[in-house]
Amino acid sequence: MKIYDNSNIAESYSGVTTPLTYSFARAVYQEVYVHFCGMMGVSRGVIRRNGAMFAKMVEFIGSRIYYDLINWYKLVSFLPGYSFNRAFFEKMLGLQKEYHYTPPAPRGALLRYGVFLPRLVFQTVKIAITFVFMGFLVRRFNRRFDREHARLSRLDLGGMSLAASKELYYRVYTEFVARWQVPIANDFAVMVSAGAADKLYRAWLGEEGYVHLFAQSRRPLVSLDPGYQIIKIVSLIKKDPELLELFSTGNSPALILRELHGFLRASPAARKIEAYLERFGSRTPNELKLESKTINEQPDFFISILQGTLASRDAEVEKGSVRTDGVSAIKLRELSAPRRLLLAAVSRWAVSSVYLREETRFRRSLIFGFTRRLFLAIGGKFAARGFLGEADSVFYLTLEEIFGVIDSDRAPGGLAALIAERKKEYAYWKGRELPRRIESEFPVGEIEAELRGRRDAPPPRREGVLKGVTAARTALARVSGEALVLADFDPAADFTGKILVTRQTDPGWTIVFPLLKGIIVERGGLLSHAAIVARELRIPCIVGVERAVSGVPRGSGVEMHMDTGEVHVQP
Q1: Would strands 518-521 and 499-502 be described as parallel, antiparallel, or unpaired?
Q2: What's the pLDDT tens digit per position in 69-83?
């Protein structure tokens, strides 16, 4: 039996994606978790014996990326404290259903106490030391990354030969992926620290801990910076009557860009826009899909967001007056001093780990943006030689196929037909709803054949009530508002004061989060992007609301019941 689940990975790779993105993700997952296990003290023998497992951490079904879930349970079992970590892991992934994987126990007292116990002690000590120095390790990783990425950004990818492009890919892959063990180790720290804080909150305060993990430092999450910077840009535009008239919805983004590059170039708003594109130009919704255009490639997309924000800023969402962490001060005072100190320490560890994770996630978007540019340059060379009809058709090939063409210096027979068929498959699966969890004994081809024969499930009919899990709450027990239902990101949508209803979000959506009154998402757990950012911004958020997009009519009213995680659809 195989279990495929995309409850969590759909946050990074929502909906359908291309063969190149999948093959790149598969290679990254395989390599980075081998390095991570080494960093966590897993023996080389265990890593070597599980080579096939590391090669199949993800699977491609219906043009969607799924976790091969049992392999992830096995991975967690390599680390100390599996009985606790399994529960934390399931919470982090937002799994609808548990899987009771039990790792094989060592046989014989000699093996148990002479080999496995010393190894367990060694791992525990090594992980503890890593956690203590995590801040230092992440900061060092960030410095090295920024230095190397700056060097890569100056390269002329279009002027490279195909052989040099392939060599560059493997050099970058080796340099960056091997070092990515540090961000993955910090992700593990997020899982453990947040899970431990949740257990303490439940045991001592009778409340869920995840919803109370607000940042306690003055440094905002780097993933929130795009949204804050947009608000600053909009404020600058509103102070300049000439710019305000230019950004009116009657003018096209192309016209606005021409004027900003012309006589308005020296204006404070224009300089701020240029600085934004330089820093955050690689961020965009679905930023980990190599086929997704970055903001730098489509600056008119960014201008549209500014126009939409300007048009809706009069309906500003009130912030701060009703936001609270929800923990009774009386309950906290009733705790003994040792318990208060321990709760505070674990909570600080959790929020610090989350802060560090968002920093490395920003750099992840940068390296994926560079990888996109590299393969687009390769696609352009393929098109110039007649191997492809157009450069972006390269996304419908796998890594192995692309490098095979480079090595042979010719296009294999039937390449055009293969790409045409894959584009057809992509379009077909894009129009289909697939389950977030698939359990089957059959190979992927047979699973896809069975899915083709199914009809998409009808919209939920539960007397106007949908159910999820509260991820971020305010002082208000119920939050009502107009639903903005989006299957995918729409820069022209009016986000201000709305309750966003969508399948999932990624860091590219953060540019509009400060405008929202509430967030309802289908996928993701209590440590998902939507949950983390909503808690930081004090925005009510409910996650894991099955089929919310199809179950909430566009423009209808919704009421979020924060105590129960229910979403009531109003006529």
Answers
A1: parallel
A2: 999 999 999 999 888
